[in-house]
Amino acid sequence: MEKYLSQLNEAQLAPTIQKDGPMIVIAGAGSGKTRVLTYRIAYLMSQGIDPFNILSLTFTNKAAREMKERIAAIVGQSEARNLWMGTFHSIFAKILRIEADKLGYPTNFTIYDSQDSDKLIGSIIREMGLDKDIYKTKQVRSRISSYKNSLITVRAYFQNPELKEADAMARRPKMGDIYKEYVDRCFKAGAMDFDDLLLKTNELLTRFPEVLMKYQNRFRYILVDEYQDTNHSQYLIVRALSDKFQNICVVGDDAQSIYAFRGANINNILNFQKDYDNVKLFRLEQNYRSTKNIVNAANSIIDKNQTKLDKVVWTANDEGGKIVVNRSLTDGDEGRFVASTIWETKMNEQLENKDFAVLYRTNAQSRAIEDALRKRDIPYKIYGGLSFYQRKEIKDVISYLRLIINPADEEALKRVINFPPRGIGATTVDRLVVAANGYKRSIFEVMKNIDKTELKINSGTKSKLQDFVTLIESYQVMNENADVFELAEHVTRTSGLIKEFKKDATPEGVTRMENIEELLNGMKDFVEGQKEVADATASLAEFLEDVALSSDLDSDKEDVDHVALMTIHLAKGLEFPHVFIVGLEEDLFPSAMSMNTRSELEEERRLFYVALTRAEKQAYLTYALSRYRWGKLVDADPSRFISEIDEQYLDITTPIEERRINPMLDADIFGDVSPNTKRNVVSSNNIRFKPAKQVELKKGSPAKEQPKFQPTVPKKLTRVESSGASGQEANLFDGKLVAGNIVNHMRFGKGEVLKIEGVGSDVKAEIKFQQVGVKKLLLRFAKLDVIG
Ligand SMILES: Nc1ncnc2c1ncn2[C@@H]1O[C@H](COP(=O)(O)OP(=O)(O)OP(=O)(O)O)[C@@H](O)[C@H]1O
Ligand SMILES: [Mg+2]
């Protein structure tokens, strides 16, 4: 047996060496699914399968690169190089690059990133004279995206009255018209957006049987990682390509399906066995990633979901430390806890920064963490922010390059036609756009033929337009002989970009210049790198394709030692020794937007499962009692997810508060309460108002009795139990604190006690604070000093 196969356990070995036929590996996190795919590819090659015939689809380009390196270590670099490996988008962009003319696109088509799409949609909404508060750009884009991922073309849209009706109900009756205009304009600009890369591939494979056959024969073996997160469009591509040979191997975990909001369909994994004949099903049960505590805690979480496949996950790894649960008063404190824990752990255990990751639900949460890390001089990197290639100055340069290979590219043209300023005003551009739409030509063509049009543009402006056309055409000539680096270097100098950026001597301006330099360095690298690959051309088109599809997760330089900060969505498939999951608060995680149906809440829970299972050695769960959101300090309650973990796996440094939730509304969030009444009030600016606390004890009932509507926090986790009515804390102020006392509160400052009410653990004080007015505080939680 091949030596590397001994690095697999028996259960992993079986799918690895199952050469032919459809197969699925369903297994929990950390059980070696990705490892099986990697070794399977090496195995197929050792069995004489040509790497050109193997297609492997991964979730990130980074994952693809890592797999390739691993395989190269086994079978050798030169063979591994010929594998087709990458994300759906990058692989099918390459195929479309070859076949695009069949669909009426130039093979040099541009890929619009989400910024480009947003800009185009924004201008369409403006041109159509629609209300931009109703037709919000991002919402419109996500709607269009969901049509495309469900393969609803413009024509299909207009044939289906239900769709139109749904949009009309959502107060957007013109959605279809925007969709049509957007698609037309992209097509005219020779541009595909991200979703087109899949949609057009589907179109290609259905409309052109000979093309389908070509790629079916090419990709005799297909492997897909993270299959649970494929959307309909991706699903159909995989089905079509694998239809002939049926050598399809998918791996996934239904418990980690977290992209439903972007159209991922968990049924793809559930139905796989129905889609193909004689499917071999494999299961892996042993987790190699995490400690027993983490594995068991994660199991106890996912158990709460109703919709799931039964799976066993266990580990032979050490017990490990319990999961640390930390409460902070504010998000700032939370950041400080994270930073100081990282700092101390690094010292005590001799670790590096890259052994730590901080995961959050929303990007906005990174700020407080960043501040705290900076104060301690701990280097960090945020993943998933604005990627390098989306920064303004970089996009400016890239837009020139895009225009060189595809002068029809409307978004690129609009970006640089007057940058650096050359006296072509917005009105002129608007006229050009209208004319181009009228003539059904690109703006660039209209500009080239400006004398033949009837546009009302004065001769001074006309000659400026012609100069611009000449400039771009001169670059096009240069592009025939120069490489990407030489061309870009020339463009930045002669277009006036460098001069323009140099004018700005502020630190930001200096950073811009550095970024451009970095871009040029990257191009040099690209050119050198391509020289090593036999059939590569180092063409500008290839470079731009890499740029359009790169995310900053991909460009991660392994040699830099930093703490990783990212959203949980981005962390899928990754692993880190120490993981902090921050902001575990109701309405944040689970997100306020995702609590309307059981399936939404279950997706949030899967997200939590993904987060927790990234940790190898130690996990930390943190929450704050108040946090700045939308510029306001809002109160927060600990997330239900913390209390859903079996307590034996937790190390709770500070007892968890009862959730201040209206028991009437929360009795059974999906049960007997009508959906209209159960939600909290949402104000117009989307800030959720918390209903007043109504967990009152019945008169005369013993203090220990739990309220009838016990929130989902298990009894033992509530402060009532841990310190108890009989414990000292609850009685701390009994009898000691009386009306008239002057107290000091950590957050509210100085105040006077007006009255005391309630019994046992429910004793409250009404206090008039100098700064914030009258507040009612539960004494067992309130941090008060009596000062008079
Ligand atoms: N048989 C094995 N022996 C030793 N280590 C293993 C074995 N199988 C997997 N591992 C290691 O366990 C970790 C998890 O494996 P892998 O990433 O393949 O799991 P996964 O099932 O893909 O996880 P996820 O669901 O998070 O994507 C990796 O570090 C991997 O190298
Ligand atoms: Mg994996």
From TrEMBL:
The enzyme's E.C. designation: 5.6.2.4
GO biological process: recombinational repair
GO cellular component, one term: DNA helicase complex
PROSITE patterns registered for this protein in UniProt: UVRD_HELICASE_ATP_BIND (PS51198), UVRD_HELICASE_CTER (PS51217)
GO molecular function: 3'-5' DNA helicase activity; ATP binding; DNA binding; hydrolase activity
Alphabetical list of InterPro entries matching this protein: DExx_box_DNA_helicase_dom_sf, DNA_helicase_UvrD-like_C, DNA_helicase_UvrD/REP, P-loop_NTPase, UvrD-like_ATP-bd
Domain UvrD-like helicase ATP-binding: 6-291
Recorded catalytic activity of this chain's protein: Couples ATP hydrolysis with the unwinding of duplex DNA by translocating in the 3'-5' direction; ATP + H2O = ADP + phosphate + H(+)
Keyword ATP-binding set for record: yes
Domain called UvrD-like helicase C-terminal: residue spans: 292-573
Pfam family, one: PcrA_UvrD_tudor
Annotated keywords: ATP-binding, DNA-binding, Helicase, Hydrolase, Isomerase, Nucleotide-binding
Binding positions for ATP per the UniProt entry: 27-34
Protein name: DNA 3'-5' helicase
